[in-house]
Amino acid sequence: MFKLGRPFLKMHGLKNHFIIVDGRERSFAPPPDVIAQICSVDAGVGADQLLVIEPATLSAATLGAYARMRIYNVDGSEVQTCGNATRCLADLLLKESEADQVLIETGGGNLRCWRNEASGQISVAMGTVNLEWHSIPLAQATDTLNVRMNHGPLQQAVALNIGNPHLVFFVDDLQSIDIPRYAAQAQQDPLLPESANIGVAQIIGETAMRLTVWERPGILTQACGSGACCAVAAARAKGLIQSSIVTVYMPGGALTIEQDDMGQLILTGPTVVAFAGHLLETHEA
């Protein structure tokens, strides 16, 4: 017989889905091959990312951080931030703490989160985007508002970093683009030494756009919170949209992005608890 291991919670934000394990009392740091197995849709629980809750570091706790979030991709690699993951974890920690807001430590910085009273949705203050070419990073000095590439219909992008790197391509007809084919090519472009998340966006009105994101390490997700923030910031920087509040429609649903005059981005959307369970004891590090 098999033995039950760690309890986990499965959540999603617009079908961008996560396995959440609480490692605050007992650390949880499985190797990459185990993370890949856990996240496998075919052979495991299935998720876009594994999230591990840890105690906040001393420096972050001094600033008021309630907990630290570690984020692992399906290949076991660790990433610094994820908007939808932060919203899902914030939902849990807001209920646990019974506070009006919660500060979550991530590799990309401390993110302030709260529940929208009117809608019940979770908002995250994602900070500002970085447009410096070496901070994306790009392999050489480049105008990040006009990144030239040659991958089928994906010819010109905006490069940004919001704790993780993104390229955003604006197109006239999103549905006509073969995202897995061309975004995968762009993701492997020599200009991207650390790869990047590839967003393909279509402006559909003064306050709305459609977006599909091909995420590192090479998966098509139903939604991407940081990608939505970067798409809005890119559109405003290019003068394609002037509104400070934009609805971003993705395959999994819609997120609302607000950007103030200082460039601060606020991400708002729904979160859902799908189910709870236990990993196997063999999944322990």
For this entry, give a set of tags.
single chain; 285 residues; alpha+beta; Diaminopimelate Epimerase, Chain A, domain 1; 2 domains; 18-stranded mixed β-sheet; 5 helices
Short recap of the structure:
This protein has 285 residues and is of the alpha+beta class. It has helices at residues 32-39, 58-62, 83-97, 179-187, 225-237; strands spanning 4-13, 16-22, 49-54, 67-73, 78-79, 101-106, 109-115, 122-127, 147-151, 154-161, 165-170, 197-205, 208-215, 219-220, 245-250, 253-259, 265-269, 272-280.
What report would you give on this structure?
- The model has no long low-confidence stretch (mean pLDDT 96).
- The radius of gyration is 18 Å and the shape is globular.
- It has two domains: 136 residues, Diaminopimelate Epimerase, Chain A, domain 1, CATH 3.10.310.10; 131 residues, Roll (Diaminopimelate Epimerase, Chain A, domain 1), CATH 3.10.310.10.
- It has an 18-stranded mixed sheet that branches.
- Helix content is 18%, strand content 41%.
- It is an alpha+beta fold and 285 residues long.
Class of the largest domain, according to the CATH hierarchy? Answer: Alpha Beta
**Individual helix count:** 5
CA(first)-CA(last) distance: 20 Å
Uncertain stretches of 5 or more adjacent residues: none
- Alpha-beta classification: alpha+beta
Q: Quick one: CATH superfamily of the largest domain?
A: Diaminopimelate Epimerase, Chain A, domain 1
Mean pLDDT across the residues is 96
What is the architecture of the largest domain at the second tier of CATH? Roll
Radius of gyration over all CA atoms, rounded: 18 Å
Number of domains: 2
Strand element count? 18
Q: What would the CATH topology of the largest domain be?
A: Diaminopimelate Epimerase, Chain A, domain 1
- Largest sheet, described in full? 18 strands, mixed
Helix content: 10-25%
The fraction of residues in strands falls at 35-45%
Order of helices and strands: EEHEHEEHEEEEEEHEEEHEEEE
Shape: globular
